[in-house]
Design goal:
Layout lengths: L10 H11 L20 H13 L8 H4 L1 H17 L7 E5 L2 H19 L7 E4 L6 H9 L2 E4 L10 H7 L4 E7 L11 H11 L2 E5 L7 H4 L18 E5 L11 E5 L10 E3 L7 E3 L8 H38 L4 E3 L7 E6 L4 H10 L5 E3 L4 E5 L8 H16 L15
Parallel strand pairs: 2-3, 2-4, 4-5, 5-6
Antiparallel strand pairs: 1-7, 6-7, 8-9, 10-11, 11-13, 12-13
Helix pairs in contact: 2-10, 4-10, 5-6, 10-12, 11-12
Bound molecules: pyridoxal-5'-phosphate.
The site of pyridoxal-5'-phosphate has 14 residues, from helix 5.
């Protein structure tokens, strides 16, 4: 039980206390850490941080009325995203605090849109692949909707037959991920989109993770399908700027083929003693820092910068993949197209390998279906790819020989 502090304390004293407290925290972009971290180099980080600090106190809620520079950044960023995602004339979007809010707003947009097209559906339902992000369940709780999540993911792809079967009179939206978080393999957006079209449903693409990778990776990887507004049935796309755009935390976007649909998410209230209150998303006050940071980093890197980073990370991923597949008993799961991927084993317990790698001070993730070790790679890992692979080989040998027993650790994405 901590009491509210009764007296003042010096900042220098508090600062050392905080530095002491964080000494056991993960160093997010450390080269032995393979947990989610979006790191493109110290230069990019400096741009993201300095621009964030410039606007740390400006409230983006008031950008239109008080901070024309922030309003300009927002407007320009939306245009840039339309361009990046091949939006046709008339497309647009709005900013949110993160991918969860973007997906939630996509559900809300579809719900309001469906009221006009499908009046009468009591509890609106959405059908999502097995691998879709849990933020859809969160959205369903808030919006009083229902998520029908497919139970199988045959060969890690979408069970299209089950998806079609799950559609009923209450269904308003289908979802595909580009790619899903789990294995980095993009869902067949064109096929799901055609199904949505046929049943008169909203088609949403969750590209929170891949929105800033796939447009560049498609140049190098012909297995990546069309996933953005080039697919004519796609009505909305969520894309996180605080992931692979490398902006500071707190910014994502919901992009819409028809920008007038952003009105479905606008709350305007004009009967308040304080005056008109009108916002395009769930947040009220929000830091201008995240917007400034996104604007600065995107202009700093440009297509040229993102393309170079993506090419570099694809090569690094291939180095990891080749090394892993060369170790007896191990294989990479599926066909990763982005920078997080999983590997498992048909021959021994991969969680025992995970335990032993953790004992060697590697910080790795675990996934459940199939049992696998999950890695998210970034530019720090150039320093450690060779040692990681040689440790992995030794550990796998010992597990295969029965010399390491598995501990009982759950797979946790966020808790
Ligand atoms: C990260 C992620 C989300 C959720 O984004 P947050 O910013 O954590 O709220 C949704 N979908 C996918 C595919 C993601 O990778």
């Amino acid at each position: 039980m901590t009491n509210f502090p009764s007296q003042k304390r010096d900042w220098s004293e508090l600062k050392s206390a905080m530095n002491e407290a964080r000494s056991n925290d993960l160093i997010w972009n450390h080269e032995r850490v393979f947990k989610p971290a979006y790191f493109a180099g110290d230069d990019v980080l400096e741009v993201a941080r300095e621009s964030y600090h410039m606007y740390i106190n400006e409230n983006a809620l008031y950008s239109k009325t008080s901070y024309p520079s922030l309003y300009q950044y927002e407007t320009e960023l939306i245009d840039m995203l339309v361009d990046l995602l091949n939006g046709p004339d008339g497309s647009g979007g709005s900013f949110t605090s993160g991918g969860t809010e973007s997906n939630l707003l996509a559900m809300k947009t579809a719900r309001e849109w469906a009221k006009e097209h499908q009046p009468g559906s009591s509890t609106p339902e959405i059908v999502v692949p097995r691998t879709a992000h849990p933020s859809f369940e969160k959205g369903a709780t808030v919006l009083e909707m229902k998520v029908v999540r497919l139970q199988e993911s045959p060969n890690l792809t979408v069970d299209l037959a089950a998806m079609e079967k799950a559609i009923n009179a209450n269904t308003i939206m289908l979802v595909g991920s580009a790619p899903p978080y789990n294995y980095g393999h993009t869902d067949p957006i064109t096929v799901i989109g055609a199904m949505a079209q046929q049943h008169g449903l909203w088609m949403h693409v969750d590209s929170c993770l891949g929105g800033f990778i796939l447009p560049f990776a498609r140049e190098f990887d012909s297995t990546i399908p069309e996933f953005d507004f080039l697919v004519p049935t796609v009505r909305s796309i969520s894309v996180d700027l605080h992931k692979y755009a490398y902006a500071a935390k707190g910014i994502s976007a919901l992009m819409l083929r028809d920008k007038t649909h952003t009105d479905y998410n606008r709350t305007s209230f004009n009967d308040w003693p304080g005056g008109l209150y009108s916002t395009p998303n769930l947040s009220g006050s929000r830091s201008g820092g995240a917007i400034a940071s996104a604007w600065a980093v995107i202009n700093y890197l440009g297509r040229e910068g993102y393309r170079n980073i993506v090419q570099d990370l694809i090569q690094l991923r291939q180095q990891f993949q080749a090394g892993i597949n060369a170790i007896p008993g191990l294989r990479v799961v599926g066909n990763p197209q982005t920078f997080q991927f999983a590997f498992g084993s048909d021959q021994f317990d991969i969680y025992a390998v995970a335990d032993a790698m953790e004992d060697l001070n590697w910080k790795i993730g675990r996934a459940r279906e199939p049992h696998s070790i999950q890695l998210m790679i970034n530019r720090s890992h150039h320093l450690t790819v060779t040692t990681f692979l040689s440790d992995l080989e030794k550990v796998s040998d010992r597990v295969a020989a029965g010399n390491i027993k598995v501990r009982d650790i759950q797979s946790v994405y966020a808790n």
